[in-house]
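Suppose a colleague, Dr. K., hands you the sequence of a protein chain of 522 amino acids and asks what its three-dimensional shape might be. Before reaching for any lab equipment, you can write down a predicted structure in token form. Begin with the sequence itself:
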Amino acid sequence: MSSSKTKPFHTHGEKNLRICLGKEPVSLDPRKENDIVASQVQFMLFEGLLCLNPDMSLSHGQAESYEVSSDGKTYTFHLRDALWSDGTPVTAYDFEKSWKSLLDPDFPSPDAYLVSPIKNAKLVKAGKVSIDQIGITSKDAKTLIVELESPTPYFLQIVASSVLLPINTKLEAINPNWASHTESFFSNGPFQLKKWEFNQQLVLEKNPLYHKTKEVHLEHIFIDIIDRKMAVLHMHDNGYYDLVGSPLSFFSRELLEDPEKKKLLTFFPVATTKFLAFNTSSFPFQNTHIRRAFAYAISRKTLVEHITKLHEQEALNIIPPVLFPEDSSYFSDGDISKAQDSLQKGLKELKIDHLGSITFMYVSSEPNHALAQELQQTWVKVLGIEVVLQQVEFKILHERSKKKDFSIGLFAWLADYSDPMSILDRFMDKTNHRNYPKWESGLYNRCLEEALKTSSPIHYMEKIKEAERILIDEMPFTCLFHENFVFLIHPHVQGFAISPLGHIYFDRISIDPSKRKFDTIR
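The predicted structure, expressed as tokens, is then:
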């Protein structure tokens, strides 16, 4: 990454915020990566047609207004007068070309499936029809028209996701590597990229051309890249960082052992869930009863009260409660009798007396290892099954899951948009890279297809619950708990807000110097 040739920044001041990330953003191009770390920075730099609010309502972003046709299949967005940070207009053509590029068969966009409701999107991505046949057209510079295959109740929620943030397409035509160079990085959001030193620091500066720039309080955001959690905690304690916590930086579990520090933690429920995926394509987890046995044996209450200790909600369902607040418990927690009965049924169907050892794969980390050990002990105690623990890197976990080279894997999901379908639709296609169990069901697919055809919100949610029940019955995976994001926030940081999807609203943060506990020169 190159950095701008400017004078050194002075971070002391009432309008500067200093934070840190536990890892470098994979890409600042929103089309190429929307993991939780990268998307945080992308939302600081770019603004889409619509914006998700902390209460999950939608507000206008670059779109001044929009209309939906009576059949629910055509959306017409009218853009406001807005500028890129280089002073050129943001146009409907920028959105059209950005969205279409997601569906180019040769473009590396792992989350292109999010726009599959758009007319011909799947066919274009598969290379079966021309990209010109996608249902995305610009009537003029201020009007974007989007046609869908069928009515999609949650489409506007997708529009507010990071994947559909725009890029300056004129700039990309000149410099395809624009996302790696600060001097050619043009944004349309509340901040602009001023400096980027790879694996060291990003500096974001208030964008004076943003259409709501008067509502943005911060002048600079200084973002250090640092993966040493104890160093991060120490620097926060001494006032160097204004706030720390997941998902930005690694959460230090030592905080849980300090009663005074624990009182300072703030917990935010989000649509993220820790779960176990069973490889349904191979022995022994092609058998439904065996999958149920491993799932029923787990005491999720023990996990959250004695292992993780972050006020998580044990998951006896699938949809995170922030997306679907109804209390849905589909089975009993830690049901030993049912687990053992399921095991015997599975062994009988497989015509064997015992399973032998099972491999359990997870990303290497202290919290994951503690979880894995507890699960290992549970399965040997309840089922008499030896489980071999295998710690791997994040990349290897996902590569092996794509190749179906695992037995049990520990994963987590975070909803991409604020509708249960964000979780459920990935299991409609076993080739989806996020369908880790590689499971598929015609009955399940028909259920969700019926949900998408209805115009009744009540019927839609009934079908959502029916699909959830099918997943629970088939048990291609089992959820452990719905997570919280945890932060330490100094009192002088005002206006901190986070959406159920984990999006932090940095444009709403301000600094109150009268509440600053430190007189540290920063």
